[in-house]
Automatic annotation (TrEMBL), chain A:
Key words, A-Z: Oxidoreductase
Family per similarity comment: Belongs to the GcvT family.
Lineage: Bacteria, Pseudomonadati, Pseudomonadota, Alphaproteobacteria, Rhodobacterales
Name of this protein: Sarcosine oxidase subunit alpha family protein
Organism for this UniProt entry: Rhodovulum strictum
Residue stretches making up the GCVT N-terminal domain: 615-884
Residues covered by region (Disordered): 59-82
Signal peptide (from-to): none
UniProtKB/TrEMBL annotation, chain B:
Signal peptide: none
GO annotation, biological process: tetrahydrofolate metabolic process
Residue stretches in coiled coil: none
Pfam families for the chain: SoxD
Originating species: Rhodovulum strictum
The protein's name in its UniProt record: Sarcosine oxidase subunit delta family protein
One MF annotation (Gene Ontology) recorded for this entry: sarcosine oxidase activity
Length: 997, 99
């Protein structure tokens, strides 16, 4: 076995070697290892390069807070992931791992030249350096910065994995399965609660996994852990490992991301990779423990420098020594225990530096017994070594004076700046944080959620205290839910209690401008950067954060936030709570898009609505376009035709003989009841009282602000029944608006609204031969122009199918719209196609429909209007029932701005060169010779090539357009500026004679 | 995700079933044409934008379809109460007692 693995020690399986590769080199680890522990077992500390300075970096933690050891992992095509934390990725056979942020190699990295330029790359560097000249930003700075920026490489192929999601309900959710979480879950489960216990690691136990010497309820920690887990299983507690609580949402909904296959050698082909759980829990106990703080000194980022607690974890959990000759520097008692455990495992402790003047006597005793030299009242001022620490410089500090230093050889340096309660999820609840001046840390205050923080997460220290607190939290949860619960605070022997002091950067004899004392390892922010930010005027931690980027990396400052805050507060001469704390937001750790998307990908991302004619259109080779959630036939190309050719043919065929169009997507609402006509009078601008049953009318709907919201032809089938049509995209919106007025403004009206959009299949027949096609299929009805004139509606049978037959036209030709129950749509369609064969009936799509309506100047709401267009602006003043006392939007039409001159009005535009088609959305100017920025007087809303007219046509909204008929305007487009003349909007058959054949 | 009590269904259900519908108790004037420009402007555009308890409308859009009123704290995002459309605006202190 490797030099750094202790045979038989730890929770790894020494009989199960696992081969993996890192940067192309093959290594051996053990089942139960993480990538980090396996590399450390092989003596490899160098695992990556830093973000900005490309400094060599190693693992500094053994958990999810790791800022340095970020690797790329891959498992074949599409299964690559950047920024995986080597401290969390479990080893699996054949794992391919690569370091990041280095070129050409990890040992020699060209980007490390940035490190030599350190004095240049100070806080706010980007803001200061790339300000000027403006043009350099687009062409030089941004492309170069973008190319150099980023952590890792994003995968370039679609992710072939599956991701699942589920809901879960629980009486109690416990987050974190360390001693506090275990005790809470046990107390609550014993009281009969349905409990879920989650932990982000591969196994439960938390700190107990790193402290096997503690004795709980008479058993060694690991035996106690096994017994508790067995009891919890027996009590029906749902135990979820490898499950991260990523966010705490409203009313005790917690998001969990469960990693299911990343640790497996060969996952089952159909297994989901991750599962997102949405848990609604009556009570929540947050037992997330505390995160150890680094100390801030020059060279604190060198590979081999790591947190003391991490070294203790690698020793006990993985049987791995992080070095043979360790130096320790601490401001907290906890690092003594790490030093003792390492010494007992055979590691030479070269020195234990304590920043405090008077460490506890019993710890000094225990150190002396092990022959460990303790230097109290000392500071670490530098480290040396190229790709791994070689020595540490230690200086005596007395009354603030730093004496000369001496170098002490070591191959690893274990540091502890104390512990920060992990309050990220608590912060997601908008819970208040209270500064504890004695502990120099934030503790949880009030929250509106039914949530309790237990253990080290609320500043407690020592197993006895933490276990008792967890137990009490479980009892409290049970009592809150009306269950009697008896507490049983576990008795603890060989406890490891302790306390510490909070440090800023450690005292040093080095010039502060030269020290590279890192606060945020991942974003390469130093103490100097933070002090500089304050000097340059940043007074709030929110500003310091944005100016220096401290705490903005993927670890959200789990290690750095408090150190950064303390240094900023020190510089400002204020207490930390006056400087503030940045807000933690979900997710707690980086989460895959796959997990968040779950099943909602590909065709499941958004539903696709299809009409009853869709299959026919597909068979016929239609090209489709999405309209709202529908897919609609766009055009029907014949072999060799492009879109332009197909649309020209469809237009000409319809105008020459007859075309057929699937209008099923039109929104349809039935308005029924004794007060239906009154309701219609109040909703729509038009008058409805005199519309006789059997007649239809174009209806215009405004918002209360007077702007056009929707339109459509509305038929009156009976005194108390209207068949309302809406635009395809507006159906749901119009029904909601109608319901709103009916329910809340006019609840006295006896009216019922029913959405019938999908009840009807609609075929539109248009063209001079439309009647000839339809007539033979209609039973019991004379559809001659005299008997069934333009704008009629009736119920009849068409091709043997019960139908609502409308005579109307959106093309300017003689037109009929045949509505039949949706299930009969295909039959109707086939019958019309058969009957139309003799007249060369031509199926056409939405593009031809658009061209035909534009030739007639018929608007499309949402294309020719944009929410700021009144009926008068659109030339639809005729559609207003002026005698009506009120309708929705009426009052707004006389507001001062609505009648002021200068409004944009809808007009036609004809380019001087009929071969030029203007771009929809193109801006319109009066005088292109004017200097920039030029005043824009309007824009093109619709523009097409009209095969019928043999030229292009367009519509536009132009200031005062209605009074500018015949004037020339200019339309700048890429390449050149075109001239166009303002006209009316009816380009074809302006008298409407063809509709009334 | 919030849990919202629909006063018509008398069920507490996930937020995803509901849609927000603006501030509550803004009645459409009985005769809009009789309002001044200022009164009509206020009706159209002027809203409370409360920090704290806010009377607002919701619709149980994927349920019974009914519009109803709610009193929600915009700071905590907590629903203090919901009640049927047409019920007079409840007083704040009374609602706090009710909770
Ligand atoms: Zn309801």
């Amino acid at each position: 076995m490797s030099r750094y693995r202790i045979p038989g020690k730890g929770r790894v399986d020494h009989a199960a070697p696992v081969r993996f590769s890192f940067d192309g080199r093959s290594y051996m680890g053990l089942r139960g290892d993480t990538v980090a522990s396996a590399l450390l077992a092989n003596g490899v500390h160098l695992m990556g390069r830093s973000f900005k300075y490309h400094r060599p970096r190693g693992a500094v933690t053994a958990g999810s807070e790791e800022p340095n050891a970020l690797i790329g992992t891959s498992r074949g095509k599409g299964r690559a992931e950047p920024n995986t934390r080597a401290t969390m990725q479990e080893l699996r056979a054949g794992l391919v791992a690569e370091s990041q942020n280095r070129w050409p190699g990890l040992g020699f990295d060209a980007g490390a030249v940035n490190d030599l330029l350190y004095p240049l790359f100070s806080a706010g560097f980007y803001y200061k350096t790339f300000m000027w000249p403006r043009a350099f930003w687009d062409r030089l700075y941004e492309p170069v910065i973008r190319a150099a920026a980023g952590l890792g490489r994003a995968p370039g192929e679609p992710d072939p994995d599956r991701y699942a999601s589920r809901y879960l309900h629980a009486d109690l959710l416990v987050v974190g399965a360390g001693p506090a979480g275990l005790a809470a879950a046990r107390a609550a489960a014993r009281a009969g609660l349905r409990v879920t216990l989650v932990d982000e690691h591969a196994e439960m136990g938390g700190a107990l996994l790193s402290d096997p010497g503690v004795v709980i309820e008479g058993r060694p920690a690991w035996d106690w852990l096994a017994a508790v887990l067995e009891e919890l299983r027996g009590l029906g507690v749902r135990l979820m490992c490898r499950t991260t609580a990523i966010g705490y949402y409203h009313q005790n909904m917690i998001g969990l991301c469960e990693r299911l296959t990343d640790h497996l050698d060969s996952p089952p082909e159909t297994a989901p990779r991750e599962r997102l759980w949405r848990v609604r829990a009556a009570r929540v106990v947050l037992a997330q423990g505390a995160i150890e703080k680094p100390l801030v000194f020059d060279g604190n980022d060198r590979p081999g420098v790591m947190l003391a607690g991490a070294a203790q974890t690698y020793l006990h959990r993985f049987g791995v020594l992080v070095g043979r000759r360790a130096a320790v520097v601490t401001a907290h008692d906890s690092a003594y225990f790490a030093a003792f455990d390492l010494a007992d495992a055979g590691v030479r402790i070269a020195v234990l530096v304590d920043t405090r003047d008077a460490p506890p006597a019993d710890l000094l005793d225990q150190a002396r017994r092990r022959g460990i030299e303790v230097l109290a009242g000392h500071s670490v001022t530098a480290t040396a070594g190229r790709l791994r620490i070689r020595s540490v410089r230690v200086n005596r500090v007395r009354d603030g004076q730093v004496a000369g230093g001496r170098a002490i050889a070591c191959d690893c340096l274990l540091m502890s700046g104390g512990w920060t309660p992990s309050l990220h999820l608590f912060s997601h609840t908008k819970g208040s944080l209270i500064w504890d001046a004695a502990a120099q840390t934030y503790l949880p205050g009030e929250t509106i959620e039914d949530c309790h923080v237990a253990g080290a997460g609320r500043g407690l220290w020592g197993y006895g205290a933490v276990l008792a607190d967890g137990d009490a939290a479980g009892v409290a949860a049970a009592s809150a839910l009306g269950r009697a619960a008896a507490g049983a605070a576990p008795a603890v022997a060989h406890d490891r209690t302790g306390s510490g002091e909070a440090q800023r950067e450690l005292p040093s004899d080095m010039a502060p401008s030269l020290a590279r004392a890192f606060v945020d390892f991942q974003n390469d922010v130093t103490a100097k950067d933070i002090r500089l930010a304050v000097r340059e005027g940043m007074k709030s931690i929110e500003h310091v954060k944005r100016y220096t980027t401290t705490g903005m990396a993927t670890d959200q400052g789990k290690l750095s936030n408090i150190n950064g805050l303390m240094i900023a507060a020190d510089m400002l001469g204020k207490a930390p709570p006056q400087v503030g704390l940045t807000t933690f937001r979900p997710p707690y750790t980086p989460t895959t898009f796959g997990a968040l998307a779950g099943y909602h990908r590909g065709s499941h991302f958004e539903l696709t609505r299809k009409t009853p004619i869709d299959a026919w259109a597909e068979e016929r080779g239609a090209v489709f376009e999405p309209v709202a959630q529908w897919r609609r036939a766009w055009y029907f190309p014949r072999p060799g035709e492009d879109m332009e050719a197909a649309v020209a043919r469809e237009c000409l065929a319809t105008r020459a003989s007859v075309g057929i169009f699937d209008a099923s997507t039109l929104g349809k609402i039935e308005v029924a009841g004794p007060d239906a006509v009154e309701f219609m009078n109040r909703m729509y601008t038009n008058p409805w009282s005199k519309l006789a049953p059997g007649r239809t009318r174009y209806g215009l709907l405004l918002g209360e602000d007077g702007f056009i919201r929707d339109d459509g032809v509305i038929g009156r089938l009976a005194d108390d029944l209207f068949h309302v049509t809406t635009t395809t995209g507006g159906a749901a919106r119009v029904l909601t608006m109608m319901e709103d007025y009916l329910q809340t403004e006019w609840p006295d009206l006896r009216v019922w609204l029913t959405s019938t959009t999908e009840h009807w299949a609609v075929a539109a027949l248009n063209g001079p031969n439309a009647r000839k096609v339809l007539e033979p299929l209609v039973e019991g009805l004379d559809i001659s122009n005299d008997a069934f004139p333009h704008m009629s509606v009736t119920e009849c049978r068409v091709a043997g199918i019960p139908a609502r037959l409308f005579r109307l036209s959106f093309t300017g030709e003689l037109g009929f719209e045949i509505n039949v129950p949706a299930r009969h749509g295909p039959d109707l369609w086939r019958a019309l196609m058969a009957a139309g064969a003799a007249h060369d009936i031509c199926p056409y799509g939405t593009e031809t429909m658009h061209v035909l309506r534009a030739e007639k100047g018929f608007i499309i709401v949402g294309q020719d209007t944009d929410g700021t267009v009144t009926p008068a602006d659109a030339g639809l003043g005729w559609a207003i029932g002026k005698a009506k006392p009120d309708f929705v939007g009426k009052r707004s039409l006389s507001r001062p701005d609505m009648v002021a001159p200068g409004r944009k009005q809808l007009v036609g535009l004809l380019t001087e060169d009929g071969a030029v088609r203007l771009e929809e959305g193109a801006q319109i100017v009066d005088d292109p010779a004017r200097p920039l920025p030029m005043r824009m007087v309007g824009h093109v809303t619709s523009s097409y090539r009209s095969a019928t007219l043999g030229r292009s046509i367009a519509m536009a909204l132009i200031e005062n357009g209605h009074s500018r008929m015949g004037e020339l305007v200019h339309v700048p487009m890429p390449g050149r500026t075109h001239r166009a003349r303002i006209t009316g909007t009816a380009f074809y058959d302006p008298d409407g004679a063809r509709m009334k054949l | 995700m919030l849990l919202i009590h629909c006063p018509y269904c008398d069920e507490t259900l996930p937020e995803a079933e509901f849609a927000y519908a603006g501030e509550a108790h803004i009645a459409r004037p009985a005769d809009p044409m009789a309002t001044s420009d200022e009164e009509w402007r206020d009706y159209l555009f002027i809203r409370t934008n409360a920090r704290g308890p806010h009377y607002e409308r919701w619709r149980h859009v994927h349920g019974c379809g009914r519009f109803f009123n709610a009193l929600r704290d915009t700071v905590s995002d907590r629903f203090l109460m919901t009640y049927k459309a047409g019920v007079p605006r409840p007083d704040l202190p009374a609602t706090e007692d009710a909770q």
